[in-house]
Specification:
243 residues, mainly beta, twelve-stranded antiparallel beta sheet, 14 strands
Length: 243
C-alpha cells in the first residue's frame, strides 16, 4: 500500500438566488431544485470564499430572497486506478475559512462532465448533483482555520475505482441536502480557502499497486496478447512452469 495526495483539478461555486415580492417562496420548487443557477464561478487562483457553501432566507427593502450556493470539485485519480491498482480508502480535505455555521456534506456531482471533460462551470451546472448519493457523513462543526476531513465511504471509493476520477459537490446538509424548508431570516455559511499554496482542496488516498503479471512470451505469443493461461488471468501469474 502507498499514500498519495491528489489536488483538485477543477473547483468552483454556483449560486442560485430567488427574489420575490409575494412574501414567501417554496424552498424546494423555487430554489433548491432549480435547473439553472444565477451565477457560476470557476476558481483558478487562491480565493477565500466565506459563503462557498451557503443557504439563506431573508427580506430586504420589500423583497424576499432565497439563496443556495454549492461548491463543485473534480479530482483525477486515474493514476491510482489503472491496470490492477486500486484505491482502498480516501479522505476529502477542505481548508475552512471564515464563517462556521451549519453542516456540510459531499454528494455525487457531475458538473465537470465525464472524466473532467469540462474545465469551466456554467450556471446550468447548478443542478448537476445527486442528493441521494452521499459520499461521507456531514461535518457539523466546520473549522475556519484548518482542514475539514471527510472520510469517504464505500460508494465514493467504488466510484473512484470504476471511473478514475472523483466528481463531487459540497452542499449544506441541514437545508439543501435534507430538503428542510429554511425558516425566514435564517442563514448558514461555510467558507472555503480555495487553492491555498499549502492546503489546497485535496484527496488523501491509500492505494495498492496490483501485480504486474507475467511478462514473457508463451509458445511464441507475446505477453501483451495473452489475457489468460489455462484460465488464469496474466495479472495473477508470476511464473509459468517455474519460469
Amino acid at each position: 500500500m502507498a499514500i498519495a495526495n491528489v489536488n483538485a483539478t477543477y473547483q468552483g461555486t454556483i449560486e442560485y438566488t430567488d427574489i420575490t415580492t409575494k412574501g414567501y417562496f417554496d424552498w424546494n420548487a423555487d430554489i433548491r431544485t432549480q435547473a439553472t443557477g444565477s451565477t457560476a464561478t470557476t476558481i483558478t487562483s487562491n480565493s477565500s470564499v466565506s459563503n462557498a457553501i451557503n443557504v439563506q432566507n431573508f427580506a430586504a427593502k420589500g423583497a424576499y430572497y432565497g439563496v443556495v450556493k454549492r461548491t463543485f470539485g473534480f479530482f483525477d485519480v486515474s493514476s491510482y486506478t489503472s491496470g490492477t491498482s486500486f484505491i482502498s480508502s480516501a479522505t476529502l480535505r477542505v481548508l475552512g475559512y471564515a464563517n462556521n455555521s451549519g453542516g456540510v456534506i459531499p454528494v455525487e456531482g457531475t458538473a465537470w462532465g465525464v472524466s473532467g471533460t469540462k474545465s469551466t462551470l456554467f450556471v446550468e451546472d447548478f443542478s448537476q448533483l445527486d442528493f441521494s448519493t452521499t459520499y461521507a457523513s456531514a461535518i457539523t462543526s466546520w473549522s475556519t482555520t484548518a482542514w475539514n476531513d471527510f472520510t469517504l465511504n464505500a460508494t465514493a471509493i467504488s466510484d473512484m475505482n470504476s471511473n478514475g476520477y472523483f466528481n463531487v459537490a459540497l452542499i449544506n446538509d441541514t437545508y439543501d441536502q435534507a430538503n428542510t424548508t429554511l425558516p425566514p431570516e435564517t442563514s448558514e455559511f461555510n467558507g472555503v480557502e480555495f487553492l491555498d499554496a499549502s492546503f489546497p482542496m485535496r484527496l488523501s488516498i491509500v492505494w495498492t499497486v496490483g501485480p504486474s503479471g507475467y511478462g514473457n512470451n508463451v509458445n511464441g505469443v507475446t505477453s501483451a496478447n495473452i489475457g489468460k493461461v489455462d484460465g488464469v488471468a496474466t495479472a495473477d501469474i508470476n511464473t509459468v512452469i517455474g519460469v
